[in-house]
Design a protein that fits this description.
10 strands, D-Maltodextrin-Binding Protein, domain 2, alpha/beta, 329 residues, single chain
């Protein structure tokens, strides 16, 4: 009887070890996204579900973050394996430019879509140009966000000192929209895809007359000072409630980023799943319609990962870079 007990115990222990090995084989990866009021989070959540369901032995989780700057730091520390990042921030991280103390060795899996720079206010605020933001209370985006980087640069291009000429707040998209409703701020910057849920919500709020500020006149200054990844594009009329006319704004590409030592096979498999299950991403947010082989392989200011290059070349596409990743001479 005693020997039989030992046999049963040994068998049970073996099953436990097999089960433990199965759990250990399930690789867990974290996707750094952004705030809940933007595009990164729903897009990233859909991507996490897609990876978990269609990439073998991988479980992915989307994490709420302050967005681009923090996301690059999470890639650097290894606390995130994938990240949604604005192209200008990704370039600054790779080069070790301010606000990064050292270079972050990162690479691109795909260029996803363009982020549109929104300067959001109301008809009652008396703001018609970027210069009119002087002496106003303005949110420049959450601390550690790509929005904050762009806001500072747009303000400087308009001749304003972000630290002296405005009353600065540092709020995310949803928090900024709430602050406008409550009369706590006059305007806010937001860099995001179309449409951004929090801007839509603000425009649909009773007794709030949404107004977006055209600032395309600053694009040449932005390109000359910071790089050709800044371009002009149009927010079509009707994108947001009460927005009856199209307006021209500055855009910058979004890049799906990994570290340079990210597993090549996993990078390949993630891209394969993204393109094969693209409809699931589109269902989460319409910006995923811009995920095409042509768009994904152009405009990245940082190099493409070897796993990405292998995937794209098998699809008959050769990844290219941005027109110029450094400021014009």
């Amino acid at each position: 009887m005693k020997s039989r007990f030992h046999v049963v115990l040994a068998f049970a222990s073996a099953l436990l070890l097999v089960g433990s090995a199965g759990v250990a084989a399930q690789e867990r990866i974290s996707i750094a996204t952004g705030g809940t009021g933007g595009v990164y989070y729903p897009y990233g959540g859909a991507l996490a579900n897609l990876i978990s369901e269609h990439v073998d032995d991988v479980e992915a989780t989307a994490e709420v973050t302050s967005a681009s700057v923090d996301n690059m730091l999470l890639i650097e520390s290894g606390d995130a394996e994938l990240a949604f990042v604005l192209g200008d921030t990704a370039f600054d991280a790779l080069e070790g430019n301010d606000p990064f103390e050292t270079a972050v060795p990162a690479m691109a899996l795909a260029t996803l879509y363009d982020n549109f720079t929104h300067i959001v206010t109301t008809d009652d605020a008396g703001i018609n140009t970027v210069a009119d933001l002087k002496d106003k209370t303005v949110s420049t985006g959450a601390a550690g966000s790509g929005t904050e980087v762009i806001a500072n640069r747009v303000l400087a291009a308009a001749g304003l000192n972000p630290d002296e000429d405005i009353q600065r707040e540092q709020l995310g998209a949803a928090e900024s929209a709430a602050a406008i409703k409550d009369g706590k701020i006059d305007a806010y910057f937001w860099s995001g895809g179309l449409p951004t849920a929090s801007v839509t919500d603000l425009g649909a709020t009773p007794n709030v007359s949404l107004k977006l500020i055209d600032h395309v006149d600053l694009v040449d200054e932005m390109q000359g000072e910071h790089g050709a990844f800044y371009n002009a594009a149009t927010i079509p009329a009707g994108t947001y409630p009460g927005q009856d006319e199209e307006l021209s704004v500055i855009v910058v590409p979004n890049v799906l980023v990994v570290s340079e030592d990210f597993d090549e096979a996993l990078a390949y498999n993630i891209l394969s799943a993204m393109f094969e299950q693209r409809d699931a991403l589109i269902a989460a947010h319409p910006e995923a319609e811009n995920l095409t082989l042509e768009n994904a392989t152009q405009g990245s200011p940082i190099p493409y990962h070897p796993g990405a290059i292998r995937y794209y070349e098998e699809q008959g596409v050769t990844p290219g870079g941005s027109p110029a990743a450094s400021p014009a001479a």
